[in-house]
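[INFO] parsing input record for DUF58 domain-containing protein
[DEBUG] input buffer:
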Amino acid sequence: MRFLKSFYIHNTFFWYLAILAAMFMTSYWYKWLYPIAWICTMVLLAMFLFDIVLLYATKNSVKASRSLPQKLSNSDHNPIVMEFISTYDFKTGITVVEELPIQFQKRDFKYNTILTKKEPKIFEYTVRPVERGEYYFGNLNIYVSTPLRIVKRRFLYLKNQMVPVYPSIIQMQKYDFLAISNKLSEFGMKKIRRIGHTQEFEQIKEYVPGDDFRTINWKATAKSNQLMVNQYQDEKSQPIYSVIDTGRVMKMPFNGLKLLDYAINSTLAFSNVALKKNDKTGMISFSKNIETFLPAVQKPTYLNSILEKLYNISTEYTDSDFGLLYAHIKRKVNHRSLLLLYTNFEHITAMRRQLPFLLAIAKKHVLVVVFFENTELEELINTSADDLQGIYHKTIAEKFSMDKKLMQKELQQYGIQTILTKPEELTINTINKYLEIKARGLL
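[DEBUG] output buffer:
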């Protein structure tokens, strides 16, 4: 049974059979071709048996391995590495059929290559998951054939390897490096013009053009006989909370990724940057109930706790209770904090229903409401309308787009900070707003 399960006929063999069939048909008119056709048949049969002997003479002649990362990063292209090595004395052609996790809905993965004896071959491909959870990689099927290409032998490796998909670790690491090197502005982070300065003293340095005259240290200037100024830095150990709405409004997908997952990826990267800047970070997720609450803590290892909580967050099909959120923040968050609220309002009336709770939160804390542009509507707005129905659709799309801008202006009139962003630009814009608030000393 093992032999039968691993035994396959190569496609080339059927071409040989077609040629033989054509020779037998032609021999009806050309009698001299009939014995030649039988000789070819015997030769093909001998080659068939010889090919089987070549493939099955030794066991485990082809070895394979698949290298998976410990965690896959959601919404990113994650590399998967496969390695093959052959101990056959001849060149072998292999076809690799990979059984990818069911979440990818891909059943046509195939890779063809040639192996020489004891010469490893490495193949790398990428996968882009768009859902968090457990992903099971199935069997690695390798079909081996000799240069005769008559039969194939299947080798089966690696049954059911599981790897979890976490929020975007790759994105977090990218911003982590920039935060350490203080080069966030090189990756699209805009430089913020400082209005005044905070009172966190850092050092005394020589004056350079552009420094604030009000920071001149006259005693140090008199001692060194040149202008010296006090240099200040952003205040540290300030509490920062990422507040994630897990209601039905966050279930809307863009580029295969739900708004909730965009918010989760942004929370992880932003929390890491805030910790590198020596601030305290925490997290709240809510819908009809408060699902997750992590108090703000300033510890680098705290990021693992945030990551594990983000991994288990899922959306609900209900409307979120902002009144419950306000009550929870009033009871649990006692110090003035920066609250980044990830939510979405598709209509201005939906925002106005929650406005009293947002205003109540903003009285004690610095509240930043983060909501999303509908990029698919933008595409509709930018296309020309060819008929009356197209004009109608374009007009409605422009109205919804204008509602988003009106919501942003109305929130700003009440003193609430806002971020209206495309989903794919969420992380950059969130970190920009954080740097701006720190630079302006609003917290």
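[INFO] The radius of gyration is 32 Å.
[INFO] shutting down worker
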